[in-house]
Amino acid sequence: MKKFYGKVDIQFAATFLYFNKKGIVQELIHNLKYKGHQEIGTVLGSWYVEDLKELQLEIPFNAVIPVPLHKKKFKERGYNQVTTFGKEIASGLEIPFEENILIRKIYSKTQSKKNLLGRSENIENIFDVEFTEADCNKHFLIVDDVLTKGATIEACSLALSKIPGVKISMICMAMAH
User: How much is the pTM?
Assistant: First the structure.
C-alpha cells in the first residue's frame, strides 16, 4: 500500500470494507468498538478469511497479531474490538493468534478525530514487543479495525521490526476515505 512506502516494509496489505462517515460500515464498527457487539468482529472475520484463502498468498503467515489496546483502555472498554476478528482470521488460516507479543505502552484518546500530524507524532514510542527466540524469522499478520492514515500500523510495524528476521503484513476491517 502506498501509505507505507518508504516508512515500513509491509509484505502484504489489504482492507475488507470501505469506511464512509454515516455509512453502514461506520455503524458496524461503532457497534463493535463502543457498544460491545463483538459478534460483528467474528462475522467480518469469517467473511474476510474466505477472501484471503482465495488469494492463495505465496507468503504464508505464521501468526495473527491484533493491534493491542493499552491496559487502561482495555479496562475501560472491557475488550479489544479486533480480538474476535483476529481470532476468526487465525482460525480460518489455521495459524496461532498471538496477543502477547505486541504491547501498547502509551495510553491515548481515540485516534479517529486526530489529523495526520496528531496521529503520527512519537509513533515509535507507542508500542513495544516482548518476544522469544521462537518468534524470530516469522511472518506476522497485524489486524486492526479501520485504516486511516496508517500511523497505527506503522507504529506496530516499527515495534515488531525489533524481532530479528521478522516479516510483517496487515489487514484491516475497513479503510477510511
Answer: 0.88
